[in-house]
## 1
Amino acid sequence: MRLFFVKDFLDLVFPRNCLLCGRSLYDQEENLCLICKGTLPVTSYHLRPIDNDLCDKVRGLSTLGMVMAYLKFTKGGNSQKLLHQLKYRNKPQLAKELGLLYGKILYEHGFEKCWDLIVPVPLHPLKQSRRGYNQSEHFGLGLSEALSVKLENGLVRGKFTETQTQKSRLQRMDNMDEVFQSSPNSSIAGKSILVVDDVMTTGATLCACANVLLANHAKNVDLVTIAAGG
């Protein structure tokens, strides 16, 4: 009885609300209400993982297999609102929940034995220190749990890069040159690796990560992000 009282008191003082619509959450709801989960702009990339517009986007930048994203990114839409929560509102648990949700979809479509490791795109240590966590790592943790695939921080970010927002595709690739290195004592050699990030725009960051992994003898590399635009 005392635990229920404490919980009710905490819910009163620190109400748990859906991060999209603001409705009060039920006990079984973590960050998003069931209604908002049901209206997320989920893509169908998992149905055509090697033949879709994301694959076209990264073609020529790296030697990749599957390229997928959980949500369709639209400016001002729910996917952008979720990414904003991750980057600026200190919501690592939301990133993990999104990973769990997408991981369940991938599991149901037979992807559970596709990868040996999940490797998140690393943040620069200064940026991670300011934010307090790496949202890509927490997304990867959700995927790891749903798919029973080990997550390993197999990459490190060696330099702080300029913003990519106003850069062309080739400029973004140049900006990512020598940004990433493999982690000391990483176990990526001979492994099928899934690289995960929060969002894909041109794919330059993800391809730079994939190229480092392949140069360090990864067997093959696939990509998954929380969201991707057109």
## 2
Amino acid sequence: MTALWTSDYAAAATGGCATRPWQAHSVSIDSRTLEPGALFVALKDVRDGHEFVADALKRGAAAAMVSRVPEGLAEDAPLLIVDDVLRGLEALASAARARTTAKVIGITGSVGKTSTKEMLRAILAGQGKVHAAEKSYNNHWGVPLTLARMPADADFAVIEIGMNHPGEIAPLARLADLDAALVTTVAPAHLAAFGRVENIAREKASIMQGLRPGGVAVLNADIPTSETLFDAARTRGARIVGFGEKGSEATLLVSTPQNGQTVAQARMTGPDGAVHPLLFKLQSPGKHFAMNGLAALAVAAALGVDLALAAGDLGRWAPYEGRGARETILLDIVHDGMTLELIDDSYNANPASVGAALDMLAAIAPVDGIGRVSRGRRIAILGDMLELGADEMTLHAALAEHPAMASVDVIHCVGARSHALWEALPAERRGQWCQDSAEMAAEMRHLLDAGDIVLVKGSLGIRLSRVVDAIRKLGQVRPQET
């Protein structure tokens, strides 16, 4: 196996000092999940990574990158000593980017970053070697970690770039040195830090600062702040591809939910002005998924890959845990038809993503006549949306007016902020309100039945994963048929 990093190469990249020769085949920041042969990076976060160096080496780490030698190590412990560990990780990231000829795509947006990253992984995997983070590593350490893990022979790299505060995206985009930048959408999220949606748009637009000369900007043309994105791309001299129903280069014509899937018709206009009809299918219902799929295909087309093959490979993508993944829960092992369907979207939430999740719920039909209740129900369990600032209660209450709510039979709410939504709901749709996820999780056996479709959606800090786990424990998880 070719080494990802050698002691000499890593020392040269970081300006550090290796205590002895070593070779690493991967990079890790967590001693608990570290693979043997990895370079352990002793970052300081909630805990100081230096406390876990000994454990990492005991678990088979090839070496550890540290800013000081932890106590209790053997004199010949394999280390890379640097002035600052995070700066050292960024230096590895920069060196990894410099040594590859991969086309690097950066993705940002208020909603859909991770789903679109995974769509691009599926699309590009049939046309080259793709590197992308397995998780949502999109912050000040996640982006450099993803880059530092990139093999030199990658053909494509897909880098997710997020933010919580102003000024975060541009330096990460510059570190990634992008061939293409994609902004999925701009919506109310992290308003506590940004105040107005227009400020969020400017921060998202700063991804263009990382574009290489002649790079491609794939931008949502349907949103009110689209001109902010387009202006930033023009200033950078980027080749612009607008996508959406108003997109002139990538236009969504029809999006139809069909048997739990989405069939989309679109057209793609190339740089030469040639127009290509496009038909693609996704293994989950939802116009937002169709829009993200169109954006991913627009990136692929801009990079010159086979568009027909890309559209076919997109059909292999499906949402995963916490991001809209669908699971069938078998409630009775004797009676195979006694099932309910779970939509696990518990990882994150803001008004736009909750609205999209409700649209998805409304597009799936429950099953009648198999449970205690005579008909299947669409049920939403919605938790607080965090970091929305001074208008957070109004934004929660406004969800009661979302058009898809008319198709939802019962809405249960979790958290102090979601109480505003609960109070705004019509009495016939108002379910239970609970202060926290543990209280709601304890109610699952009484609130759900065979034939139901259950959406669980909230910000990560509300810990609705507890509710998801409680639903799974009602029976046995059966994989979705595709």
## 3
Amino acid sequence: MIPRALLLVNRHARQGQKRLAEAIQCLEKSGFHLIEESTEKPHQISDIILHYRNQVDLVIVGGGDGTLNAAADALVKTQLPLGILPLGTANDLARTLGIPNSLTAACKIIANGQRQRIDLGWVNGKHFFNVASMGLSVKITQRLTKEVKRRWGVLAYLATALQVVWESRPFSAEIRMNGESIRVRTVQIAVGNGRYYGGGMTVAHDATIDDQRLDLYSIEINYWWQIIPLLPAMRQGKHIQAKQVRDLQGQDIVIHTRKPRPINTDGEITTYTPAHFYVIPKAISVFVPTGGEQF
């Protein structure tokens, strides 16, 4: 039986429009019957998936982490397996799962049919794959335009981060988890479900997307320049070893701030504090590389 796949490609993703025809050809060659729908408005993605839920066997999403995030709610509801074509700028979820940026290789992974159930994070009614955060990351998101990402790729994250770091000012927050209440003065709080975020930075050195836990870190510095030595360590997740960084793990976290602060989930500002986070173990099924695949 020929598998029926709903193909959703974000034409505004860094490589979306340019590689749409290539993606269709590659998937049809791999034996899929495709239903292709436009996703020029990401907020419509969930409705499209729900509309086709009884007509397809899987959903294939081509785009970046923001596009994948927009599909998360409907994937949970329908339990349709997810195939990923990394066509965005950062592709952090693909990186976490070991899916290469090669379109041919990504199609091969979907065709081979190896699946893995992964966790999802949840905050104030919104699912996330990678990280939900507040503070510096929100300023980066607000500055990081589509044009900048399309032109500079992953380097856009670093360049924008350097621009906003010097403007950073600590804010007060209360973190409640594991029966404790912790008050902090911080410039960034990140709550990670997966391993990678922000163009390849690591949440924690041992984080995985199926470990059934959330990894929280809080950068507690007094002056903007104190974050500079931490930046290289953030690529490997070793920043949590620094004395200025608080490292916590749990399954259920509540964060309060004096005034509502925006929260960035997988690269999009979607909610505000006060925020309730928790992990949903083995929430959805994703196509991943088999142990013997070489790229």
